[in-house]
Amino acid sequence: MKLSAGDIASALRSIREKGPVVHSITNYVVMNNTANALLALGASPVMAHAEEEMAEMVGIASALVINIGTLSPAWVRAMFRAAEAARKRRIPIVLDPVGAGATSYRTRTAQELIRAVPPEIIRGNASEIMALIDRGAKTKGVDSSASSDDAVALGRALHEACGAAVCISGQTDYTIGKSGVIRGQNGHVLMTRVTGLGCTASALCGAFASVTADPTLAAAEAMAVMGIAGEIAFARSAGPGSLQMHFIDALYNLSDGDIEARARIEAEP
Amino acid sequence: MKLSAGDIASALRSIREKGPVVHSITNYVVMNNTANALLALGASPVMAHAEEEMAEMVGIASALVINIGTLSPAWVRAMFRAAEAARKRRIPIVLDPVGAGATSYRTRTAQELIRAVPPEIIRGNASEIMALIDRGAKTKGVDSSASSDDAVALGRALHEACGAAVCISGQTDYTIGKSGVIRGQNGHVLMTRVTGLGCTASALCGAFASVTADPTLAAAEAMAVMGIAGEIAFARSAGPGSLQMHFIDALYNLSDGDIEARARIEAEP
Amino acid sequence: MKLSAGDIASALRSIREKGPVVHSITNYVVMNNTANALLALGASPVMAHAEEEMAEMVGIASALVINIGTLSPAWVRAMFRAAEAARKRRIPIVLDPVGAGATSYRTRTAQELIRAVPPEIIRGNASEIMALIDRGAKTKGVDSSASSDDAVALGRALHEACGAAVCISGQTDYTIGKSGVIRGQNGHVLMTRVTGLGCTASALCGAFASVTADPTLAAAEAMAVMGIAGEIAFARSAGPGSLQMHFIDALYNLSDGDIEARARIEAEP
After folding, report:
1. Which ipTM was obtained for this model?
2. Which residues 8-47 of chain A have a CB within 8 Å of chain B?
């Protein structure tokens, strides 16, 4: 497995040309920013959560992103319906297990979703990924409290258990899939002070998975683009408020040259 | 029918003086930006969606805006209750049929709302408007996939079927009402890369309808103000992130002179 | 009772060191900005509203903030569950009675919450606070339509009725508690043109209550930090859009020197 800056730029170009519809069932906190990030990237966001329209809405989408950040029974039912519809249509599914480990409702919902309809990509922080395997792991809110280095072995275990490419974001982003591990070093720590950039990363995984067939590569491409846009935005920012705004602008303006100059990615078999 | 820059400026002044309460039942994705746009305009937003308080909340409002962007059965019931309360109080109702045509749940809900409590203004993109008449029209997500030119005849058909002023937004904004068609040419294409500016436009239609008696004029005034603020914002923006921010600032600072200098409106009987 | 700029700076430092988890059950309109404000302050926001996970989620929190801005029966049940869990764990509870007085559903919900599980802090505008005592008070939407001067006596009455520190925000912020009244003069009127800065203030009350034992002092600290960050942001803003962004940046960058130079607080027994 190899992933070059050129591959990332080419995938981004493909998103901008095709404008893939990414259906997101995501949490209330981040919906607006997630939709704006998808639009800035060149994708076409759709957000809907009623069981009544799930199959039809998934029917016009090129990828489905399920984020469990604000759950309720009705939404959980809709998530299962959406996942089943996506599986039938063979479009990629991304799962963001926000807060898995923090409550058993979240851990259980994420585990049941994985069991019922295995997603192509699971993206979370180390605590969340660990919670999906090891019920003993504790999550402090929705932030990571485990080092990514400890988690990569567990990520591999989750990949082996369910087949998904597992993306563990943190100072280093690890993507573990069928053909190996990709390490990404892009991004800036101030991004953790903006709510929902992890959720945005999962949404971008959906967009990239609609144009890149290999889920491991798609997730690594998304993380690189997130990180590079975050670095460019950070350089112009005076704090997390302006970082959020410049991040959206940077995503929109991201050029092949930006990706070439900044991508810090390492793949191993 | 005539609509001058002076009329628009005068309506905006009236909103700023009266601070009309605009009750919005809108989708989760855009609530924050919609509320901020109404505040920047000079109106007073209220957002509530529980059946339990619908009649009372509508009771303090000067306009009601119903946006079907994220539906669920409980919200649909609340929308009907709110519309009935608004009709009793004779305050204007604006309907934004977000995603009509994308799923039958949305198309049906919008059609039933129109049938049960005909709104004063319906604002959507061409696909959405077409979906309300022609079940064959397809919506690609919530974006327009039909040209506004094709849609204006259908807009007239919808107006004739239900009596509402029908506003079809796109590169040209068409407002079709009892006394003719108004074409607006303000705005910038980058606005389509910010989520929910269409929803904001519908909210502004509500604010203008609370001060301008003729719904066709009110909708055209709102679209002109949206477009002019968008143009001013675009000139200061580096992408869709900063466009959103400058748009709110521009709405807040919009002067008679800005409107006079930029309004591009054409009315025909 | 005394509250110095040094106390405020010290409480803020303590939040930044500890990163307290603040669990917010808040309205859809403001979730994103509230989470971002808590992150910028140095706290760790959690937002969850399902009864199924309430007790567990409150179990990892250092403060609970309940905001009734967008109610529904399921959310009201979750609010009671969360309040009971917080009471058991003896973590501080903040109640923001958004729109109390506007509908009886809101007034009743806030009153029942106060009766069932008396909060440590209640923060609202004058109309909302009055509505909790005097059913005759009318709220115009969620904005204040009563002067803070009239309201302070009612605030004292509410404090005496339920024991909570009562914070009435307006041009002057009054905090009335066990040991007296604190008047804060920070802030800028343009902050009222940004949706949800009142809700943000309540969330910050939660963060400060997790590090400052006296609820009256905690609320006054939060209001001072809000107001100071708002003033700094206003000086850099061209309107309410940029104010919101600079506000988050200002919260993040707030220094001891800023607080020392700007705090305008007066306490009386």
Report:
1. 0.94
2. 21, 28, 31-32, 35-36, 39-40, 44-47
